[in-house]
Amino acid sequence: MKHNVLAIVLAGGRGSRLDPLTRDRAKPAVPFGGAYRIVDFTLSNCYNSGLRKILLLTQYKAMSLDRHISIGWSRYFCREMGEYVDVVPPQQYIAESWYLGTADAVYQNLFAVEDEKPDYVIILGGDHIYKMDYAKMLQFHIANKASATVAAIPISLDEARGRFGVMEVDAAYRIIGFEEKPEHPKAIPNQPNRCLGSMGIYIFSTKTLCDKLCQDAVDVNSKHDFGTNIIPSLIDTHPVFAFSFMDENRKTEAYWRDVGTLDSFYDANMDLVSVDPHLNIYDAAWPIYTFHPNLPPAKFVFASELRTGQALDSIVCPGVIVSGGLVSRSILGYRCRVNSFSKVESSILFDNVQVARKTKIKNAIIDKDVTIPENETIGYDHERDRNRGFIVTENGITVVAKQVGRRYFT
């Protein structure tokens, strides 16, 4: 990329709606699709877009995320050429408090922006699944001589209500109205059931960003949030534009998923095992990068009338052994083992889940390092699952946290 651009990835949220998967890891570090972490999609977008200067701001439960970036991502960047992805925990240079909002997170790290002296700053979330060329958005920003640009995607009013920023734009896509998480979103003209939602992706000309963050920091009534405060305060005095999401996934419908709840997380994963998934992770033109551990290939053992190790319509990661069990419509993370006469159906197993003989699992998410003993059932009796301390979602998905699984099964 010929312009001097700094990318800031906000990866410090609690991710409370994904509990128990976020009890000891940040939301961007939650595994996705077997081999990936959620943050890999934003970072891959940066890399594929030519953005090679990245600050990743962490806050809560950042150890596994920090380790993932250090082991899996640092090797893609050449520090000698000015490339980097740096994990930045709260530095408390400016205040002794933790981040008070998304804008405050960037404000407390303005020293890093000033050190880099970029022409433009792109603010990204680390917790969405999508493919996007940020260079195209930057070109739009520059062509419109914008002070700020917000990535936008049409979404249903029901989906937007209380969850997303909603924009109004004129014919040139200049933003003339912005509400953060309104209860009554304003519809797109001639589309009464849809509105223009903010994707939480912002490009700022650096001076505008620094000036506005400094003003916001001393406003005692501000929530110090980009969607709630920064963008609405700019639209009357600065040229602020909406950039219509251009999907690099190359499917009929644009793909962008907020996997912020257990059910949405489960659904997005299950899409990957369908015959023609909405998200194409096999596209060599827009690869998704991550850390792949040094493990042997997956193995399927036994092929007899009594027991056959097989996986159907499933994603199976390296190090997995399916030994006489049946796996269907499921995702098995690294080093999982499914033993004889067991059945795993429509489920997500994180790394190193051990399923003993004659066990049945369906419609479940099992966190890493859980060992499930013989003759167990998970996902068949929701009341029994709840009594054992497991979470059962609104859509009937049983979630076994690693702490609860270890305590119950040992």
Topology, element by element:
Elements: E1 5-10, E2 31-32, E3 36-37, H1 39-48, E4 53-57, H2 63-72, E5 84-88, H3 102-107, H4 110-116, E6 120-125, E7 128-130, H5 134-143, E8 148-156, H6 157-160, E9 165-169, E10 175-180, E11 194-205, H7 206-217, H8 226-234, E12 240-244, E13 256-258, H9 262-271, E14 299-301, E15 310-312, E16 315-316, E17 321-323, E18 326-328, E19 331-332, E20 337-338, E21 343-345, E22 348-349, E23 354-355, E24 360-362, E25 364-366, E26 371-372, E27 377-378, H10 382-387, E28 391-392, E29 398-400, H11 402-409
Parallel strand pairs: 1-4, 1-6, 4-5, 8-12, 14-17, 15-18, 16-19, 17-20, 18-21, 19-22, 20-23, 21-24, 22-25, 23-26, 24-27, 25-29
Antiparallel strand pairs: 2-3, 6-11, 7-13, 8-11, 9-10, 9-11, 28-29
Structure notes:
This protein has 410 residues and is α/β, with parallel strands linked by helices. It has helices spanning 39-48, 63-72, 102-107, 110-116, 134-143, 157-160, 206-217, 226-234, 262-271, 382-387, 402-409, and strands at residues 5-10, 31-32, 36-37, 53-57, 84-88, 120-125, 128-130, 148-156, 165-169, 175-180, 194-205, 240-244, 256-258, 299-301, 310-312, 315-316, 321-323, 326-328, 331-332, 337-338, 343-345, 348-349, 354-355, 360-362, 364-366, 371-372, 377-378, 391-392, 398-400. It has two domains: 5-271, Alpha-Beta Complex (Spore Coat Polysaccharide Biosynthesis Protein SpsA, Chain A); 299-409, Hexapeptide repeat proteins (UDP N-Acetylglucosamine Acyltransferase, domain 1). Strands 1, 4, 5, 6, 8, 9, 10, 11 and 12 form a nine-stranded mixed sheet that branches. It has a six-stranded mixed sheet with strand order 16-19-22-25-29-28. Strand 4 (53-57), helix 2 (63-72) and strand 5 form a beta-alpha-beta unit. It starts with a strand and ends with a helix. The model has no long low-confidence stretch (mean pLDDT 92).
